[in-house]
Amino acid sequence: MSNPYTGTVTSALRKSELLLAGRPAQGLQAAALREAALMQLWRAYLAYLAELSFQLQLGLEPQSAAELQQRLQASAKASGEVAELIALEEDPCSWLSQLLACWRLLWRPGKANAGAQVGVDLISTGNRATANPESLNDVRLRAWHLALQELVQRHRAHTEEW
Question: Which DSSP letter does residue 129 get?
Fold first, then answer.
């Protein structure tokens, strides 16, 4: 049976790419495009979690890798892909942790995890500041897009081998 979430992941990744590839915008328009790109990246990640859940026959649409891991453990199953996602979500310096922290702050101000922190720059300098939607820029969003796209492609290639 075909995975119903694969198309959603691919579509959301493509939409974020298109939002970032447009002609340079200024002011409010630029902020709106960046927020839209961030939303598509978040959507792609959630759809990817659902894709993994479907693939592992867990029967849920998880909101986090931790939720997926709990169901895996309850089902006495294991997944290297889920373990990698857990590690990325828990590492405050990882691209995924930064993406999710920025998403939480943008869409749920005041509700973001106090421990979720991101560097001011893409290159960690050892000083970390709380994720800040105002610090969103095209470079950071493109880096997150490429990292998520690479992760999904690598995981899918690994699964196809089996």
Answer: E
The pair phi, psi for residue 53, each rounded to 5°, is -60, -45
In the three-class reduction of DSSP (H, G, I as helix; E, B as strand; rest coil), residue 118 is classed as: strand
How many Å apart are CA 75 and CA 39, to the nearest integer? 31
Closest to 104 in 3D by CA, of 38, 51, 49: 38
Both tokens assigned to 88: 């990325």
Q: For the residues 22-33, what does the mean pLDDT come to? A: 87
Q: Which helix (H) or strand (E) holds 130?
A: strand 128-130
| Helix residue spans in 2-26 (DSSP H) | 6-21
Report whether 78 contacts 52 (CB < 8 A).
Answer: no
The angle that helices 6-21 and 27-55 make with each other, rounded to 10 degrees, is: 160
pTM: 0.84
Residues 34-86 have pLDDT tens digits of 999 999 999 999 999 999 999 999 999 999 999 999 999 999 999 999 999 99
